[in-house]
Multidrug efflux SMR transporter (Ureibacillus aquaedulcis), 104 residues
Amino acid sequence: MAWVALIVAGLFETFGVAMMNQYSVSRNWKPLVFLVLGFCISLFLLDYSMHTISMGTAYAIWTGIGVVGGTTVGMFFYGESKDWKRILCIFIILCASIGLKIIS
């Protein structure tokens, strides 16, 4: 269950980052509320997962999901570059995250 919580925590981090971008564009209060809510849920679930998963592994997976998710959201929803070098870096992060899961 801790791994599920960690993955969901990473997804909420991605959501928070997307709302951060949305807030910087619109300066509306709704994205700000969702930003705070997304990061609060993310940190709560990260804390929960760290009761079972080691801190280093949990934090690396959590940030990896956030980086990959934030970059992917930026590429597909905000018109950021889809250059092959960026995609290669995302692939490397995913491989490292999977490697940490395998050796944990």
